Amino acid sequence: MDENLGKKILVIDDEAYIRDSVVGFLEDFGFDIVEAENGRIGLEQFEKFQPDLILCDLRMPEMDGLEVLAHVTKKNENIPIIIVSGAGNISDTVEALRLGAWDYIIKPIQDMNVLFHAVDKAFERKRFIEEKTRYQKELELANKDLKTSLETLEQTRDQLVQSAKMAALGELVAGVAHEINTPVGVGVTAASFLDAKTREFHGMYKAGELKRSELENYLTTVEEVSNSILINMERAAELISSFKQVAVDQSSENRRQFNLKEYMDEILLSLRPRYKKTNHRIRVSCDPDIELNSFPGAFSQILTNLIMNSLIHGFSGLENRAIEMDVTRKEGQVIFAYRDNGRGMDQKQKDKAFDPFFTTMRGKGGTGLGMSVVFNLVTQTLKGNIKLESEIGQGVVFIMTFPERWPEHRDDQ
Ligand SMILES: Nc1ncnc2c1ncn2[C@@H]1O[C@H](COP(=O)(O)OP(=O)(O)OP(=O)(O)O)[C@@H](O)[C@H]1O
Ligand SMILES: [Mg+2]
C-alpha cells in the first residue's frame, strides 16, 4: 500500500454514488483522490491537480468523457486514462480506446478488484513507459558520446598515421645528415691541409728557397688533394640532391613523372646509412624502362617502411642477411616483389601485420602503423594490391601489384 502513497487519481463521474464507492475504495489503498462531477470540472481539476491517472465516465453533462479524453491526451499522452462506462456504451468505449484511453471498466462495478487491477496495471505500464523513455534517452546520450569518441579516435588515428609518415621521413633525415658528414669532413680536412701546404710553399717562395723538387712536390699534392675535395664534394652534392627529392616527395603527395629504377636507387642511397654498418645486403633488380606517372612519395614511404622492418624485425640478432627486390612488368601491371631472409612471421603476426597498431615492439619504439601505411599506399594511392607470404624462420615475401598507368579519374584532376 505504501507504494501508492502520493499517487494522484482524478475520478470524473456525474453519479455521486459511483464516485463515492470508487473514491472510498481507492483511498483505502493509499491513493490521493480528487473528484469531479462532469467533464468541464474534470479538466479544471486536471490542470490544478496534475493527477497521475484519470478514471473517467463517458456520458456526462456539460462535457462528455470523449472530449475530456481528447483534451487530456493532447496535453500529455503518457497519462493513463481508464474509461468507466455503462454496458450500453460499447461503441463509445471503443472510440475512447481508439482516442488513447488505456483501459475500460464496465459499470456498475460489481467486483472492486477489477477496478484495482485496472489501476494497478495502468500504473505498471506507465512505469514501464517512463523507464523505456529514460533508457532511450540514456541510449541516445551514450550514442552521442560514442560518436564523439569515434570522431576523436579517427582524428587521433589520422594524426598517428601522419606521424608514422613523418617518422619514416625522420629516418631519412637522420641517415642522410650522418652520411653527408663524412664527405664534408674529409673535404674540410683536405682543404685545410692544402691551406697549410700553400702557406709553407709561399714562405719558401718569398725567402727565395724554392727548389724545383719542392715545386713538383707541391703540384702533386695540390692535384691529389683537390681531386679528393672534388670527389667528396660531389658525393655530398649527390646525396643532398637525391635526398632533397626523396624528402620532398615523401612529405608531399605530389604526382609526377619518374623512372622507377632511378628513383629506387635514390631512395636506397638515402637509406644506405641505415644498413651500411651491418653486413646485410640489398639487391635490386628493376626493369630500367618503367616510367611511371604516379606518386613517388608513396614509393619512398613503402620502401622505407619495408626496409626498416626487415632491419629491425626480420634481421634482429642475425648476421649476413639479404633483402631482394625484383620489379617487372606484365600486361600493364607492375609487379614488385620484396623479400628478406630474416626471422619471418608466425601465423598470428601474418594475419595482423597490416592492422593499424599491430606491433611486436610495443613500448620499444614501434607504433604498429608502418605496414598499415604501406597497405593504404599500395591499395589507395597506387590503386594496387599487396600480398604477404611468410613462415617463421623463412623470411618474408611481399608481392605488390599496381597498374603501370595510374587510372585517371575526374576527381583527381
Ligand atoms: N620483415 C619483417 N620480418 C619479420 N616481422 C615483420 C617484418 N615486417 C613486419 N613485421 C612484423 O609486423 C609487425 C607490424 O609492422 P609495422 O611496420 O606495421 O609496425 P612496427 O614496425 O612494429 O612499428 P612502426 O613501423 O610503426 O614503427 C611488426 O611489429 C613485426 O612483428
Ligand atoms: Mg615498421
Give keywords.
Rossmann fold; alpha/beta; binds magnesium ion; single chain; Heat Shock Protein 90
Average pLDDT over all residues: 88
Spell out the helices and strands N to C. EHEHEHEHEHHEHEEHEEHHEE
Tell me about the biggest sheet? 5 strands, parallel
Shape: rod-shaped
Tell me the number of strands: 12
CATH topology of one domain: Heat Shock Protein 90
Q: Distance N terminus to C terminus?
A: 77 Å
Tell me which CATH architecture of one domain applies here. Answer: 2-Layer Sandwich
Low-confidence stretches: none
Provide the helix percentage.
55-70%
Give the CATH superfamily of one domain: Histidine kinase-like ATPase, C-terminal domain
Radius of gyration: 44 Å
Question: Helical stretch count?
Answer: 10
Structural class, by secondary structure, is alpha/beta
CATH class of one domain: Alpha Beta
**What is the percentage of strand-forming residues?**
15-25%
Say which molecules are bound, naming each kind only once: adenosine-5'-triphosphate, magnesium ion
Widest sheet, order of strands = 2-1-3-4-5
